[in-house]
Known about the structure:
With 218 residues, the chain is α+β, with helices and mostly antiparallel strands. Helix content is 49%, strand content 18%. It has three helices and six strands, in the order H-H-E-E-E-E-E-E-H. A hairpin with a 5-residue loop joins strand 4 (90-97) and strand 5. The protein starts with a helix and ends with a helix.
Amino acid sequence: xxxxxxxxxxxxxxxxxxxxxxxxxxxxxxxxxxxxxxxxxxxxxxxxxxxxxxxxxxxxxxxxxxxxxxxxxxxxxxxxxxxxxxxxxxxxxxxxxxxxxxxxxxxxxxxxxxxxxxxxxxxxxxxxxxxxxxxxxxxxxxxxxxxxxxxxxxxxxxxxxxxxxxxxxxxxxxxxxxxxxxxxxxxxxxxxxxxxxxxxxxxxxxxxxxxxxxxxxx
Length: 218
């Protein structure tokens, strides 16, 4: 009876975990659009992996969104759908900030390593029918071709995301530069108006002084 209860609890836990980690497939065209809804977006590299504490450190190479002044940022694995970047490689990261300024990288985000790994990130190869007489070498070659196809697709997605993110970054810089320019022009306009008012006041004072002197001389 106890064994049955334990099996039931384990099944419920697995079911809940699977349900909480169900993510919708994101099309390449929408990756950046969806990713920019997160708090911080950057292109970086995993430089430190602590598999015991489940803490992963990224070196930020290029920041696209978010206010963060340090060069390094830490991800704490919190379970559920968190990504485990255990390979020291390049990453495009879309993440939320935790209260302690660490980040949470969700497996449902478009975040991806340069060489993705794991059953969740890589689709299963097409099944080969048993009726087909294919020897082991050809079968191995077919899996190799499938891996190359997947890596090629991931590389295309990677380059596409970087290009879109840099376009976004440049557009934000242009908006920021325009706002700064407009603010400067507004400040200059205020200075000019104040200067004109002061000059007019001084002119009027001078005019009345001269007029008073003329009247006094008469």
